Amino acid sequence: MYVFHSRNPIGRTVGEPNTERTVRGPREGFVEDIHQNLLLIRRKIKNPSLKVESFILGKQTNTQINIVYMKGIADQGVVEEVRQRLSRIKIDGILESHYIESMIKDSPKSPFPTVFSTERPDRVCGALLDGKVAILVDGTPFVLTVPAMFVEFLHSAEDYYDGSLVATTIRWVRFLGLFVTLILPAFYVGLTSFHQDLLQTPLLMRLGAGREDLPYPVLVEAIFMLITFELIREAGLRMPKTFGGAVITILGLVLIGQAAVQAGIIGPLLMIVVSVTALTSFILPNYAFHQIIRFCGIPLLLASGFFGFMGILIVLMFGLAHLVSLRSFGVPYFSPVSPSRKEGWKDVFIRAPWWAMETRTPGLGIDHMSRADKGNMAKPPVYKEGRDEE
After folding, report:
1. pTM over 0.85
2. How many angstroms separate the first and last alpha carbons of the chain?
3. How does DSSP assign 15-75, residue by residue?
């Protein structure tokens, strides 16, 4: 006997994702209907090894949750850990996938996301083929995948639809944008406050002339400009789309930026630094990661304002140590960079050609099972409570 859904659900149709757009690649994105989202995954992976398990969470909402994985590829220890963490959730209602993300993530006090979210079916299918587990939540177009790694948040779906050389170059541009967003305002504040001897004399004289009549220290000016940018960005998100972009452009660039420079409140070079920082922050493809990186620049800015370049190095050292110590469902967050896995570097800083990527990302599932079903199957690791790898 076969049972088919005959209902006509109310909701929007499948369209292009709003937060993860690409020039080349599929134009379809997840919607709020979990059955439609599961259909989008099954249409790309036509394999009986694709397994789906259903849960009902939320005492009042009774929200349907599906975990999806590839049997024989995904590590069963990770799959079992996902089941246990979902079964421990006790909440009245689940209205969005972030409810699940915040309750199953490792290191909940860490600002960095250890669960990846996307609204692109092709990214989810790629993660499943890599040995990850996907979590679908009814009522939201954002699907969660675990385990998550730091470098994954700097990758875009379009990296796998362009040539190897082009994709690698664009990845390096993203890494450059990451460092510019983090360090550029702090570097400028430290340079002008403590390390003027590093500047050439003509540039130092011009910088000094531009700051001669300014009433506030450069640290105060930088904080003021960053707060102003955040206010403008938040207002742009809340304003109607029909006229929001034009109003924000006029207010942000003309009335606030140019008027503040002409009034002698901030320096013109600082205005350029903050504008470049705001622009490069949008290079980061993942929105949640983009928000975290923006706010991580504030401790660097304060440390640079009080201690110069030494403060930047100290904050970066503590931040890197924190990233290396994180784990996501038993997998090191900074993998395959730390611990170093040579076979995983083909898809980290570079995007090797498809014929060269014969193994999956190490540490996620069955490492030595090639994408073309070549190689031997490795014994999966054993986990204790999803955190310690034996």
Report:
1. no
2. 46
3. ---SSS--SSS------S-HHHHHHHHHHH---TTEEEEEEEE-TTT-EEEEEEEETTTB-
